[in-house]
Amino acid sequence: MPAEKSIRLHDIGEDELITRLTAGLRMDEKVRCGPGDDCAVLYSPQPAWLDLLKTDTVVEGIHFLRGEDSEAVGWKALARPTSDIAAMGGLPSAAVVTIVAPGNLEVATVEGWYRGLQKAAEAFGISVVGGETSSTHSDTAVISVAMTGRVEKDRCVYRCGAQVGDAILVTGRLGGSLASGRHLNFKPRLVEARWLTEHFKIHAMMDLSDGLARDLPRMMKLSERAFCLDEKSLPCHEGISVEAALSDGEDYELLFTLAQDQISGLMAAWEKQFGNEPLLSVIGEVSTGVQTQMSGGWDHFSKS
Amino acid sequence: MPAEKSIRLHDIGEDELITRLTAGLRMDEKVRCGPGDDCAVLYSPQPAWLDLLKTDTVVEGIHFLRGEDSEAVGWKALARPTSDIAAMGGLPSAAVVTIVAPGNLEVATVEGWYRGLQKAAEAFGISVVGGETSSTHSDTAVISVAMTGRVEKDRCVYRCGAQVGDAILVTGRLGGSLASGRHLNFKPRLVEARWLTEHFKIHAMMDLSDGLARDLPRMMKLSERAFCLDEKSLPCHEGISVEAALSDGEDYELLFTLAQDQISGLMAAWEKQFGNEPLLSVIGEVSTGVQTQMSGGWDHFSKS
């Protein structure tokens, strides 16, 4: 281990960095839930509601590539935080957009991003109400989107509520998102999440962004539970191995847990409501103990 | 003029870029005021209040330099959007932070940013409730802060309200912010703005971030007014020329207009409340016509 002062971000990885950074933050009485969940949750002036706040970013070379369809990049930039609002059971409201870009970037590219942002905003009932632009001396563009939302207090779902014996479920199919281009045109599971929280008592929920192998242990760590994963039941995209489905990331599907005795009712009602699009799969069970790791998944800052 | 498809950001500059980007946005009934002011303004569930939303960013090499005191950089990252909330007459509430950084950056630097962010958050009554971290393949770090706030409906001040005959005033002193390091430790004029809107009917207000020479014409363009500036009365920092005070930028002082017949009362009450710290200066008058330009000031993306 190098001396403290020369420790770099890639030495400790994303989760340890976030643990260190959030340790010194202090929440006040406005805050229902600070860092660690899909969104921050704040008390609302309307007692039956909670306010949601989220920021998310796409970085050139990491989340999109120069030359990729700029409208799709803009769509993705707005769809990512929308997916986090969905994962709380919430409704998105307004967004502000920060663009950091080199001066020699084509105006048409940035205009394409904004067309995609607006297209997604209209699709999900969001107003893009402002933004900020800054130049950079680097070649790397960044689009950062902050979003507000709201959710009925009794329908807000956190990551930390998984109960022993719960079934673990996932919407849609997993893996191959980057290679297939799905990461650029995915549809956040807003409608499905609202339907779930309207009809069922979902115990814990999050959206899958870094791959099931990283995200499921995060949920279980916060819930102080362990899990049994039935890898055979993983809904892999066509041609995708179980390993890739676990670790590719950028699926933007819902991962949630629900009491076992609700599952047959859920499956029947889901099929009636949505058919097979998206798929809904039971992939495991919550167990006793605390399980915080599993191999695979995407880590920002790791050297690999 | 080059062909449309090869126009670059530095060919059109920041204001034209923003005009193009925001032209395609559509606001819904939640929105009181979209892009163009210091903050976006949204209707609140509490009829007497409005919700504010702002995003602002600091980019390495533009707003701060590698090796600069990291706590001060974090302070600045949070103080900037706080200054925009102040400029609406508002109270800041919660913030979320996006960090984009290369994997080889020292952890201690990012921890320093967060200490500064938290210090500013406590100073201004804000909770940092979440964030997002992403790696980048570039060497350039970015800190983007989105902030919510609120303001009483009858105390919200827009950029567009300047009236012919109004005096134009500015708090504090201008110029030399980057060279002196003031841009890293400035204190947003929250208290002063709240006091102003409590006691006076401020017609238009904004914070000075790109220099008076750019920001005053922006206010007058939105107000559809022109202005006479009394350059001799500009409150320049010691050793700073009028030209530099007009164009250096990053002052984070309040620029506002008020009916002439209120000025003597304001000046007396201000001195009683604040003494000479900060200074309050009448620097000009709002006139008929529409004045949208003046030489000087900072333009992101311009080649100069």
Task: Provide a short characterization of the protein structure.
The structure is a homodimer of 304-residue chains. Chain A has 304 residues and is α+β, with helices and mostly antiparallel strands.
Q: What is the mean pLDDT of chain A?
A: 94
The CATH class assignment of the largest domain in chain A is: Alpha Beta
Overall shape of chain A: globular
What sequence of helices (H) and strands (E) makes up the elements of chain A?
Answer: HEEEHEHEEEHHHEHEHEHE
Largest interface between protein chains, with number of residues from each side: A-B, 87 and 86 residues
Looking at how many chains there are and whether they match, the oligomeric state comes to homodimer
Would you give the CATH topology of the largest domain in chain A?
60s Ribosomal Protein L30, Chain: A
Strand content of chain A: 15-25%
Major sheet: arrangement of strands of chain A: 1-2-3-6-4-5
Structural class, from secondary structure content of chain A?
alpha+beta
Ends distance of chain A: 18 Å
**Spans of chain A of 5+ residues with little confidence (pLDDT < 50)?**
none
CATH superfamily of the largest domain in chain A: PurM-like, N-terminal domain
Helical run tally of chain A: 9
Structurally, how many domains make up the residues of chain A? 2
Examine the secondary-structure arrangement and name the CATH architecture of the largest domain in chain A.
Answer: 2-Layer Sandwich
